[in-house]
Amino acid sequence: MEQDEPGEAMRELRERRLGVLELLQAAVGSGLAVYAAWALLLQPGFRRVPLRLQVPYVGASERQVDHVLSLLRGRPGKMVDLGSGDGRIVLAAHRCGLRPAVGYELNPWLVGLARLHAWRAGCAGSVCYRREDLWKVNLRDCHNVSVFLAPSVLPLLEDKLQAELPEGARVVSGRYPLPTWQPVAVMGEGVDRVWAYDVRSGGSAGQASPGPSSASVPGAPNSQAG
Ligand SMILES: C[S@@+](CC[C@H](N)C(=O)[O-])C[C@H]1O[C@@H](n2cnc3c(N)ncnc32)[C@H](O)[C@@H]1O
């Protein structure tokens, strides 16, 4: 027995090392799997977008979509969702009468998914999803704009909206407010909250003039509702 002890100790050590190696392999394997999923599913389309402008996909909540539509319903003119994801806001906008409704999205998988949803809803020919960089889309003819983007890109977005949107356009921002514009209405609570802004004349073209910090919008019922 005494003689076996060093051999047994070596065996035990080897087994333990194997255990550590297996753990290491599993960690590296799952890291690679996460990277592959990110590279294949989320990264396409974003290669030419600077890292600081890349916004990951998170779908708007059902309530968030409802609030966006409450603040846009009945308005004339083209509606666009900048970074339209799986197309839920565009499809809902089309269904409540906003025409044309167009989604701009860089991720080709999400554009495909959005088109599939539209097709399943019987709206394939009527809603439009374009695989385009929102920073390169000209917003001159957009009267209703929906955005749900990361706070880090909103200052730059404000500049773009201010420079391009026509007078009378409305912007609805989901989950995060535009940093310096004054909202004309706020709806919902927490992650479902949305802010509406109207572009008025005065100052530079497309500049949003100050409005009530949080109040109702004419024609938007229950605009403080949660
Ligand atoms: C937070 S998600 C919102 C998705 C959708 N609007 C919604 O409310 O369900 C932001 C989306 O913007 C897209 N996106 C980010 N940067 C973009 C860009 N430069 N051009 C087009 N789409 C972009 C992302 O791929 C993602 O789908």
From TrEMBL:
Q: Where is the composition biased (Low complexity)?
A: 206-226
Q: Where is this region: Disordered?
A: 201-226
Gene Ontology annotations for the cellular component aspect, listed alphabetically: mitochondrion
Q: Which UniProt keywords apply?
A: Acetylation, Membrane, Methyltransferase, S-adenosyl-L-methionine, Transferase, Transmembrane, Transmembrane helix
Q: Which SUPFAM superfamilies match?
A: S-adenosyl-L-methionine-dependent methyltransferases (SSF53335)
PANTHER family given in the database record: ADENINE NUCLEOTIDE TRANSLOCASE LYSINE N-METHYLTRANSFERASE (PTHR13610:SF5), METHYLTRANSFERASE DOMAIN-CONTAINING PROTEIN (PTHR13610)
Q: What name has this protein been given in UniProt?
A: Protein N-lysine methyltransferase FAM173A
Q: Which organism is it from?
A: Callorhinus ursinus
For this protein's source organism, the top of the classification is: Eukaryota, Metazoa, Chordata, Craniata, Vertebrata
